[in-house]
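User: Quick sanity check before I run a bigger batch. Here is a single chain. Can you write out its predicted 3D structure?
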Amino acid sequence: MIPRFGYAIGAAALLAALTAAGTGGMPAAAQELPRQADGRPDLQGYWDGGPVNASHSVEDGCCDAIHSRMQSRGPERLGLPEQVVIDPPDGRIPYQPWAAERRTEMLYDMETPTELAHIDPEDRCLLVGVPRSNYRGDLEIRQNDGYVVIQYEWAHAYRVIPMDGRPHVGSGIKLFNGDSRGRWEGDTLVVEVTNFNDLPWIDSHGSFYSEALRVVERWSLVDADTLRYEATLEDPNVFTRPWTLAFNMDRKGIDGQYEFFEESCWEGVTNKHRLAAGRMAVEAGERRLHTHDGLPQ
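Assistant: Done. Predicted structure follows.
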């Protein structure tokens, strides 16, 4: 088991400091949106983590005829409640041809894994990266003039986002959640994220990227209890063009009673059995595509 408490200790202290320093109070004039003393939108609080099943696959109908039932919207209870990829309009990740072929191969590897790299990094207790962290589970935002902190229920991971215009860390530093730098554009918090490693996936369908990934996030309040999230992903090594996913988050804990659940991850509970089964299947010539045809119709 990987303990999560150590990850959160430093963030908890910083969150407390941000709460005390950044709340301030509402401006004298009544405002439609909650704002801090400096007039910036107040994004602080707990938010739900995106649409149901988005962490499974952000695409409509990913990635084959059988998977289309898993992700298609309609009477089936398994699909996305809304289209998450808003650009391109077809709701699909614009992979280069070689990358699309590799992702299909990864779907076979997921179903009959023979090595750890074939298993979703989330199932291996690794951090899930950006943007996936924002639709894997609930999150909490704290802010003041100098920083925005996002803490996640999943893995109790957190991101500390400087707002002072400092440059990104050196290009040789590669991180699971990347290196974030924030700024305000009107009432929108814009966060540029670079310096990724290539270990996390965008979702559990093997939607991969390279270390060249650059993500631009846009966080904006629709109203006091609705937060709009957009992320544009650019990776010239893997995608044919930049593409964008977006969804709304609802505020949680309006009554002040909400808190994160404790989360733990046992990385060895199923992986060794999955690897053994996958290796036996491959040796028997039964390499299979990752599908959901056994799920309820």
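The first helix runs from residue 5 to 22.

User: Great, the batch can go ahead then.
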